[in-house]
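Dear H.,

Thanks for agreeing to be a second pair of eyes. The structure we're designing against is below in C-alpha cell form, covering all 217 positions.
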C-alpha cells in the first residue's frame, strides 16, 4: 500500500487552516480599496434606493404642511383685519358692484349654507383634519400634497372661528367678507377648501392616487 502511494503520488492540497499569504504591491492596494468601496456602498445613505421613497415622502409631507400653514395664515390675518377695520362699517367696493368686501358672521357652512347645523359642521371640519393627517403618512404625490394642504389650511381656518369666536366654543360664527355680486359671501378659508376639492377631483379623474401611483379604470 505504501509502495502504491509512492508510485501514484499524493496530490498537492492547500492547507485549510494555514494563514493566507499577505499580498503586497499595487494589486494589494487595489483590492483593499475595492473592498472599502463596497463596504461604503452597502451602508445606508442618502442616495440608496431604500431611502429614496422615504425621503420623497418626507418632502411631500413638508409641502402639504407648508401649503396648509400659508393658507391658514392668510385666512387668519385677513379675518383679523376685517374684524378690526371693516366690521360694523359700510362695505368697500373693490370692483364696483361686482366685488365688495362686506364683513358678516356666518354660523353655517361654507358660503352661508346650513346655519342650523353649526356643531355638525364643526365636527366635520375636525374629522377632515384628522383624515388628512392620517393620509399624509402614505403621501408621495406633489399635486395631492398641494390639494390636501389647501383643504387642511382652509379647514383649520374655519375651525379656529368655530372654537374661539362668539357665541361659544364649537358654535362660533365664521367671519366672511368676500362678496361677489349675486353670490354668497365667503372667506379665504372657503376659497382654499374649494380649490383643494377641485384639484382632488381633477387628480381622481386622471387616475393619480395620493401614493403617486396611476391607475386606469
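And this is the sequence the design step returned. I haven't edited it by hand at all.
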Amino acid at each position: 500500500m505504501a509502495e502504491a502511494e509512492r508510485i501514484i503520488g499524493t496530490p498537492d492540497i492547500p492547507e485549510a487552516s494555514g494563514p493566507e499569504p499577505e499580498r503586497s504591491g499595487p494589486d494589494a492596494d487595489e483590492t483593499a480599496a475595492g473592498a472599502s468601496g463596497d463596504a461604503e456602498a452597502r451602508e445606508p445613505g442618502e442616495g440608496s434606493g431604500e431611502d429614496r421613497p422615504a425621503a420623497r415622502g418626507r418632502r411631500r409631507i413638508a409641502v402639504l404642511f407648508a401649503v396648509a400653514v400659508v393658507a391658514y395664515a392668510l385666512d387668519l390675518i385677513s379675518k383679523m383685519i376685517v374684524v378690526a377695520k371693516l366690521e360694523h362699517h359700510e362695505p368697500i367696493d373693490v370692483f364696483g358692484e361686482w366685488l365688495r368686501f362686506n364683513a358678516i358672521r356666518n354660523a353655517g357652512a361654507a358660503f352661508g349654507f346650513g346655519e342650523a347645523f353649526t356643531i355638525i359642521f364643526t365636527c366635520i371640519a375636525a374629522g377632515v383634519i384628522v383624515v388628512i393627517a392620517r393620509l399624509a403618512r402614505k403621501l408621495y404625490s406633489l399635486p395631492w400634497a398641494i390639494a390636501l394642504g389647501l383643504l387642511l389650511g382652509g379647514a383649520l381656518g374655519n375651525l379656529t372661528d368655530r372654537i374661539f369666536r362668539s357665541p361659544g366654543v364649537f358654535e362660533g360664527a365664521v367671519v366672511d367678507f368676500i362678496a361677489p355680486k349675486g353670490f354668497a359671501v365667503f372667506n379665504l378659508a372657503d376659497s382654499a377648501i374649494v380649490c383643494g376639492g377641485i384639484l382632488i377631483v381633477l387628480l381622481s379623474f386622471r387616475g393619480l392616487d395620493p401614493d403617486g401611483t396611476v391607475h386606469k379604470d
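Two observations from my side: The CA atoms of residues 112 and 130 lie 24 Å apart. The beta strands are 92-93, 99-106, 174-180.

Warmly,
E.
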